[in-house]
Amino acid sequence: MANKSAVPRVSKFQPNISGMDGQHMHNEILLGLPRAESVVLFPYLEHVPMPTHHVLHEAGQTIMHGHFINSGLASVLNLMKDGKSVEVGLAGKEGFIGLPLIVGLSTSPTRVVAQVGGSAFRIRASDLKQVLRQCPKLQQELNRFAQTMAMQATQVAACNRLHEVEERLARWLLMSQDRLGGNRVPLTQEFLAHMLGTRRASVTVAAGILQRAGLIKYTRGEVDVVNRPELEDASCECYQSMVVQSGNWKKESKV
User: Fold this and answer.
1) Is-above-0.70 flag for pTM?
2) Contact between residue 67 and residue 90 where contact means Cβ atoms under 8 Å apart
3) Which of 3, 166, 180, 247 could form a disulfide with 53 if both were Cys (CB 3.0 to 4.6 A apart)?
4) 114 CB-side CA count, 13 A
5) Which domains does the chain have, with CATH numbers?
6) Nearest-angstrom CA–CA distance, 162 and 57
């Protein structure tokens, strides 16, 4: 599933700090920083492509870089000894990959892989450690995002145990759409099965149920969300719980 051989080309990112109009920047953590912290952080950032299936960091290995996701989706995967995996977290332009770094750790028990290709702003682990000493707002926002991901992991664990596959699929599609924008989610059934921790046949049945209800349209390699309000109704309670909690934390961060 992971393409470890793909080495993204990088380019130094030099944003218009005085303007901060976000023309080429979509990461919400970076866009929300005060100018004084942007001046400190931005020179350390490299803009990198994030090809589909590219591994951002591997379980048990040293995390060399942190990644502020700019577009696309990154999946946090829990790996079993038999090679099976299940998604325990999902991050897009709202987030950051490499959270162990912010508490002084250098490895993670999870693999993070680009599920939908996009781009990221990358920073070396050693540089992030230095920058955080000068950027309290960045430290706060990364801590809040770490809490969001922890909440997401516990909710997903409960969801995978208690809810039907079609409910979980609806929840996952809504989460992906929130981060990607638009109505199209470019994914195969095989990859969806990995994400949901179930068999591909079960995903086929679940997608068929949602499609016959007129909520999605599935073609090879992508899902179109046709009726979002009814897809929300078809989802389990977990989606709304995560939206509400994340919204509450965002409100608190503005106080």
Assistant:
1) yes
2) no
3) 3
4) 26
5) 11-136 (2.60.120.10), 162-248 (1.10.10.10)
6) 30
